[in-house]
Queue: 3 jobs
Job 1
Amino acid sequence: MVFIGFYGEHISVGYASRGGWDTFGPMRLITKSKDNILYELDGKSALAVYKKYLGDKASGLPGTALLFPLAIQSENPNEPLVRTILAVNNEEQSMIFAGDIPQGAQARFMKTNFDRLIEGAATAAGASMSETLTTPELAILISCVGRKIVLGQRVEEEVEVVNEKFTNDTAIIGFYSYGEISPFNPSVSCNFHNQTMTITTLSEK
């Protein structure tokens, strides 16, 4: 692993993370989980409840799970943590996620809305500049590989809408990841995310 630190009175750093997924169905209590494995929602088999909501798409699991991640209630009720489903265990009736699923937390199912995913990327770009006083000179974009798979041929659009938020003076670089670490915005604590667009901006005052 490589770590790079920037510090000084003249550097300004902005950051934000957004998903853009639509939630649906009632809020449910995580009644049984361990680390990244979910067993029960509201005292019922989580996998059985999940399959019921997916309907015909349940036959495509775990592949179709990319289209239906889980929302974990965070400290910001308007921006839940997104958790990607990696696999299902039919014998244990459990679901394995790409991040911790805290027992006692609340959760809702999510579904794909392509326009909202792209809008989420644009919102992340705007939020990343909310605390800075100058136009960023560099923007680092980290998008989840799950978003790339879901968006398919439209994947370039999320980069295009982000680019429109910055000026021609902003250099943009980035890559696809298997998880993103960032606060939603400067006013909240840092979290681990799945299937989001996470942006860090750097500028010199």
Job 2
Amino acid sequence: MTATLPPRISAGARTPWYRILYVQVLFAIALGVFVGWLFPSVATNDWIKALGDGFIRLIRMVIAPIIFCTVVSGISHIQDASKVGRVGIKALVYFEVASTFALIIGLVVGNLVPVGYGFAAKGDAVAVAGYAKEAAAHKPVDFVLNIIPESVVGAFAEGDILQVLLFSILFGFALMALGTRGEKLRDIIDEASHAVFGVIGIVMKAAPFGAFGAMAYTIGKYGPEALGNLVGLIALFYVTAAVFVFGVLGLVTRFIGFSIFSFLGYIKDELLVVLGTSSSESVLPQLMRKLETLGCSQHVVGLVVPTGYSFNLDGTNIYMALTTLFIGQALGAHLDLEMQLVILVVAMLTSKGASGVTGAGFITLAATLAAIDPGLVPGMAIVFSIDKFMSEVRALTNIIGNGVATIVVSSWEGELDRDKLRLALEGRVAATVETD
């Protein structure tokens, strides 16, 4: 297979520190916190909010073409059609195992540190009602049907990842069946991939502005006081996510043959953008490119990463387990072992059923509570005000989990270039999108 997009290899003079993306994004986040804290009236201006929203829109604008080009190019160059199905099955098996570990860790920590007991607070019940209503209407069967687009144009226009992925897989198989007759079209799609990644290179120059706007608006609107007595839940969630990343994923990466710390350093630019925007979608194209540079085969990257955005939500699973227990503790509801096993099963389903929906983390929580005990749904008002402060870690954990999953499946398939992996993690090879 020769379709892998060649990343540039850094050479020559060292880039000045102030021109490094993660430095710019980190500075923008700090400035956003400062402005949001000291000048909330300025930070909540519509134009400030538009900086963050606009950047995410710019990225989403090219996600569908990136997925289409990458998946079609990867599949069409494969000689064995069964290989695609094999990769998909392996990815789903890994997703379910990782998600189960995330939920179990969340439940264990939530029981060991019951921060919800003795809590009493008023929440935004009106705002929560909207999420609960949307969650009730979003059923697993609707999720399955929604994978099939009503039209191909509609799938690309709405930017639905799974719909675009489905069409891309079918188109890739059709192009593969054409054999030599499809070579010209394959070449065009390969070149189009380079052009779209070039667009990403241009758009990423605006990442610091997007991170500043999103962070300033968040702090300006909710303020440090929004944390209040709920800081215990936030801290517990942060610690639990860290335990999962450095414990579970750390063991997985060690088994594969590299360090989780090296991997986090490799994708630090993407992690900082996610931290500033609270959206893992904002770095999907760059993550795919970096995983290819890391030694993962293109067709594995093209299948596993987009699918993982809907099926491998480790951060969301930890959030649901912890928050469900917190609400039960705060409301004085006793959730015994049997009920907690139900939480595990229900959350495993609802985390898939509400993917792709705006505010998915909070909506999946509503769906989980409604399925377990409708009496717990009003308790969502307790955590509504701090959900924004938890969404960043949800997104960070999700993207790290998807990156590790792609490397694992590539290794599982025997298609992980370990020399490229070593060189990339050592910083001797840099993945940069082409802009000229």
Job 3
Amino acid sequence: MDISIIVPLYNEAESLPVLHDWIVRVMQEHGFTYEIMFVNDGSTDQSWQIIKQLREKNDHVRGINFRRNYGKSAALYCGFEAVHGDVVITMDADLQDSPDEIPELYRMIQEDDLDLVSGWKQKRYDNTLTKNIPSKLFNATARWVTGIQLHDMNCGLKAYRQEVVKNIEVFSEMHRYIPYLAKNAGFTKIGEKVVQHRKREFGVSKFGLNRFVNGYLDLMTLWFLNKFGKQPMHFFGLVGSVMFILGFIAIIVVGAMKLYALAHGVSAMLVGDNPYFHLSILMMILGCMLFLAGFLGELIIRNSSERNNYLIREEV
């Protein structure tokens, strides 16, 4: 099969027939073999009934129906597990992504030998204050942290080689950082294509400003897991050891100053009344706790079933 198209959706009943017909027209015009996987993320409207109706008239349509709303990452994860196409396309159901972009995305994967192609909505029709400006700041930070030079990492319109989607795990709200997940798994041939952004025709956006706050937190989580996830002692052990040593040196200095004052008959406050004494003790305690956190992390990883989970490109 040439192409699998995954469409995660939540309350997009009005858009689905239009999107389906548009995708089918593009597939037929270019002679692709295809499947359309609609993942209904617990919609409360008629979305699932419409998906079943589309399935009745088109054998290329498949559907997954969640019992409740789990989020876009869960929808993509289940979609990735279920599809079979050589190239996997993801797109939103709100008609803001154009299916006319699919043939060129497919060509870039197959002919340009890319692992992943991310769309870039260079000209947007969103609210500038609430979406465009925060999006630019978010993407600038993502480029700096991940080292992947994409202008729109969170664009829903993406193309993947099948091997990519079968070897990455999208969890929590990490769908924003699929290119980073792919890079960490060894799929480094990542490209970008300017795509058309269309105004929403039906319904309302399901995302608010809180996604930017959550996005930054998720980005820091991914960065930390990628850098120290397999070796937590390298972070916690190092920071804990430095804090303990500094605290130990500080408490020696406090004691030496007290002994010097006593030896020379100089009046000095009690060691227990010296704030530096308490700060030194606090640093030593925190250092021990961080060191133990790293040690416990190493013990957990040692017993993890994924401690030797490495991706092999090929064997001869």
